[in-house]
Amino acid sequence: MIGRKRQESAAALKTPEQEAGDVMRSLARALNNPLKSAEKPAARQSQDLRHTLRAIEASFYLLDQLRDVIVEACHLVLRANVIEDLAGRALLAEQYDELRNAIERLIDGAEEEASALLGPSAEGITATLNATSSYTVFPTRLSLSSDSIDLPPPVEGFADTAEVARILGKLDKALDTLDQVSASYMKDAQYLMTKLGQ
Fold first, then answer.
1. How far is CA 48 from the centre of its chain?
2. 142 within domain boundaries
3. Domain CATH for 178
């Protein structure tokens, strides 16, 4: 009983990244382990489910990459918050803008499966569950625009501390956005894995 409580307590303390890691490992097992004949869904259903789960798996990898870049940007902007030298701040602003460009490149250059859910023109994926029902994984169209991740350029080159504070707030919200997207796709993955028989 005590051991179970400890396990439940540890599970409750998992970070979003750890939870996503758990789901990704389950996804890998579900996609790599062939089902027994008695467990196999219909061919069309199995094909759709596996395609959708692979797209979710690819999306998790992209979300991880984006999170890493945004965390790096957070550290960089925090440095700008304590530097008084305007030239030093301007240099950090340039580096932050380069990270913004890196985020754009990651999104625009994402593999097809991830783009189906996270690309700028993503339309989502619908998987056949049986002869009469289907399940749709809805898209999250990621970009730097204000209706998505919302990371503005450093127009003032971090010369104004208000701009630094504002961008720090945007970065924090961007991480929250990625966590929410990841949590939503984790639920989709867990549901679809049960339908695949895992």
1. 22
2. yes
3. 1.20.1330.10
